[in-house]
Amino acid sequence: MEAESMKYRYLGRSGLKVSVLGFGNMTSGWAEGAEEWNSQCIDKCIKKGVNFFDTAELYGSGVAETILGRNLKQGGYDRDDLIITTKFFPSKFGIQGLSRKRLRQAIDHSLERMQLDYVDIIYLHRFDPEVPLEESIRIANEIIDSDKAFYWGTSNFTPQQISECFTICEKHGWIPPIVEQCEYHMFEREIVERDYVPSFNQYGLGTSVWSPLCGGILSGRYNDGNVSAGRFDNSLFASFTKPKWDKYIGNRKEAAVKILTGLKAIADELRCSQAQLAIAWVMKNPDVSTAITGASSIAQLEDNLGSVEVIEKLSPEVLSRIEDLLGNRPTPSMNWRNFSPNTPRR
Questions:
Q1: Start and end of every NADP-dependent oxidoreductase domain (predicted)?
Q2: Using an 8 Å Cβ cutoff, are 321 and 181 in contact?
Q3: What is the pLDDT, as a whole number, of residue 232?
């Protein structure tokens, strides 16, 4: 895949164009030797047309931000071509949460770690019930006014919380969020395909979705149903993959293996990897602005990058076969305009 084949979408109703595949360095804060391969990954991504790079102060308590900034500086890339984002977590650094005091300090610390004058997007990295949402939004706008960021967004907010953000911004004439960062993959569909639909339609909200491979479960690595801590000598396994297996698969191993091997068969027919199929399926959704992937090796990254070319292979027939395998299409919200008193009740 050459850079020319990368696809780009507007992020919500903003004029910001992002690559449909983004790169996140969440694991860089924990993995040994992360800086070297992170540098290689960034270089590979940029050469392939990826312009969206995601990190957060939470990742390794700032280590991931430091690694990203150092590698960007050493690479000598054109900053104007890149979209750099970071996120501020309510309780990671002290007791002040997403307060005015903490967010003012957080943006300065993040920029210092990344050796940047500004980031393109800041996220409120979870809703903070202990700080008035209006206070957090006010300071997000102040950060934008000070040119330390250009846009802001939410991460793992409920539809109701997102709606409240827009109500507050409309009341005060503030800049509203342009993006929500949420989990989305073949096993986690309701929030994107049903719950956020009013926000997409009413506010034109964009999305930067994470975990398109469900912690690696959809990559093909666990098609035999063998998910045990001793199988892979990787501390990240216990933190990310095993909890997702327990949540989405649980005791339904036989059914899961049937789904996973069925996906592998479809991928083989399309002449792509199972991981590419899963990521392309996520990007096929027009409500997905960019899908954030990570990697622990260049080989894995190159495979992920190839998923962009698979999007066009997902014909209605292929998508229908995938639906038959998954069997978890969310039930749409009731359209009461079409309701009839004579409709049989269940």
A1: 21-325
A2: no
A3: 46
pLDDT at 335 (0 to 100): 64
DSSP labels, 52-114: EEE--TTGGGGHHHHHHHHHHHHHT--GGG-EEEEEE-SSSSSS-TT-HHHHHHHHHHHHHHH
Whether the pTM exceeds 0.85: the reply is: yes
What's the CA gap between 118 and 114, in Å, rounded? Answer: 9
Q: CA separation (Å) from 272 to 34, 37, 322?
A: 27, 24, 15
DSSP-assigned states of every residue in 248-312: HTTT-HHHHHHHHHHHHHHHHHHTS-HHHHHHHHHHHSTT-SEEEE--SSHHHHHHHHGGGGGGG
Q: What percent of the chain has pLDDT over 90?
A: 77
Q: Is 59 a catalytic residue?
A: yes
Alpha-carbon distance of 84 to 211, in angstroms, equals 18
Q: CA 67 → CA 16, 24, 70, 209, distances in Å?
A: 25, 12, 5, 22
Residue 216 DSSP symbol:
T
Which residue, among 325, 237, 261, 181, has the nearest Cα to 245 in the 3D structure? 237
d(C-alpha 268, C-alpha 264), whole Å: 6
Query: Which DSSP symbol is given to 185?
Result: B
Residue closest to 152 by CA, chosen among 164, 163, 165: 165
Q: What is the C-alpha separation between 316 and 302, in angstroms, rounded?
A: 26
- The CA distance from 104 to 99, in Å, is 8
Domains in the chain: ranges and CATH: 7-213+279-308 (3.20.20.100)
Active-site residue, from 8, 59, 118, 248: 59
